[in-house]
Amino acid sequence: MxxxxxxxxxxxxxxxxxVVPGVKIGDVLDGKVPDSPTPTAWDxxxxxxxLVSPLNRRKYTILVVGTGLAGSGAAAAxxxxxxxxxxxxxxxxxxxAHSIAAQGGVNSPRARKVDNDSLYRxxxxxxxxxxxxxxxxxxxxxxxxxxxxxxxxxxxxxxxAREYGGTLATxxxxxxxxxxxxxxxxxxxxxxxxxxxQALQRQINAGTVKLHTRSEVLDFIIKDGxxxxxxxxxLVTGEVSAHTGHAVILGTGGYGNVYFDSTLAxxxxxxxxxxxxxxxxxxxxxxxxxxxxxxLPKNSxxxxxxxxxxxxxxxxxxxxxxxxxxxxxxxxDIPEEDxxxxxxxxxxxxxxxxxxxxxxxxxxxxxxxxxxxxxxxxAVYLDFRDAIERLGKETIAERYGNLFDMYxxxxxxxxxxxxxxxxxxxxxxxxxxxxxYNQMTSIPGLFVGGECGxxxxxxxxxxxxxxxxxxxxxxxxxxYTVPNYLAPLLGTEKLSxxxxxxxxxxxxxxxxIDALMSIKGEHGPEYFHRKLxxxxxxxxxxxxxxxxxxxxxxxxxELRKEFWTGLNITGQDEELNQVLERAGRVADYMELAELMAxxxxxxxxxxxxxxxxDHQTAEGEAExxxxxxxxxxxxxxxxxxxxxxxxxTRHAEPLTFDKVPLMTRNYKE
Length: 669
Prior knowledge:
Radius of gyration: 24 Å
Largest sheet: 6 strands, antiparallel
Helix content: 25-40%
Shape: globular
Oligomer: single chain
Strand content: 15-25%
């Protein structure tokens, strides 16, 4: 894809009208991909980026919000280059960022195995896995820099698994037929995060990075059309403060917790991205939400979250259900002839390693048909019996031991002896803040990295591409693109804290806090959050219908009104107050959820994880409409953020595919 192709596509592009009442059709967006063949677009971009002299770098201040893999990488890399960096985290230490929760591995097309892997195959798998709703050029950059990521993270301390001869070991993940996933048993995210946090700490000690812990972003400072700062709240003292700089980078993760039940840590939230959206940053494809097939099913209503079991388990575990509806026999008492290994039956070429969206739909179909297992009949089996007989218990323990221990602690069953029980659960948001090829949002000076952006994954993310995309953004993309933006600003001072734009943002922030504190209703934020999650699971879940999505929009709007009249926050705002923190996040979720439902109803096709009952093939697979919907929806919303009406405008970036031609996904052969 080239800018010439993009310009031609944009010129000929006609956005379809919306079936959602009141939605306006906006501009056609330019992704700013270089005018070059797609495989060389990133090289072309780097060759023409503006540079900042080493002697001038300390004259710039860059604010980095979030210290996960994307944030810590960007802060450490830019600090190493000599920029003045301020990093913010709501944790008590950078190492606690949610990147530690990723388990199975990190992809890279290094082609060290003799299995015919290549950069092109990586791009093909990524674009196909995302059901052709990502930028092809982004996928190429992900693969190109992904080769560097493994060597870099290995060099700074990530203890990757190794083969007997000392070379780095790999395994397979969903949606591919090669072995390109590098791993550290079942704790890859934790080890990469520790390595990144150590690199960040080195720059903190060197004085190039100033770290602010227990700080949460509440607003953004915009002046002259540029993002020039953030408003933060100290989570211990409640103090609200402004910080200004020449550019801001968000690496604040995804928004899956909008569903209440998700695999994310309870503190993970979408507020930073949503507050940026409130200031004018477009939100891309918000309804593209991944349901991970290897989650642990809920066993009671009082559970506050679900638990993730790594997709890597599908390398050796076999997924099955009883053939007979309502079969109550214990798993080990069900003979082979009464078991249905349905993924192997339906998708013989990929078997249990089909992409997550395909697997989650297949699991849901079995559960909904009455073949679910477990006390609540809401799961399927993931069975390691055959792998243990073939490889031995010791080998399985070497590969997945900590995951098996975690499962036993959570469920009180030994997966070495009985099959695991798994079910689809909300996990990863493919949608996020729209950004161009340089990772800059629709607000100049505001950049994104990792899951809070929309890049790379389209309508479905392949397993082990999340750690990769966060590392690529932090270490090998933003350190090139941010200086390209900063270079023309040489000699420009960062905004004074006395500037009117700063005062306006501070007043706006305090006004919203005061509004939340003054409601004095009857219910805490969790009451509304649980209700919101149930609406979303039903209306914007694994399977979607036009009626349910329309119903969800109306229910969310009513719940927003109820929230702004019925919320009760205990304590005061000028102190540690976790109820206030959660209330602010739930207020954001209410608005985000409305846009998610609108985006889902508006996108009149099925693609990836977005599957509508009126757009399916005869075999029940997602049916895309490339003639009308081969574009990224980038939403702008305005209006009352305290329960009143809002207006929505859908902008669009057309997508073209040069090296990976549009085709129907096929994982059967």
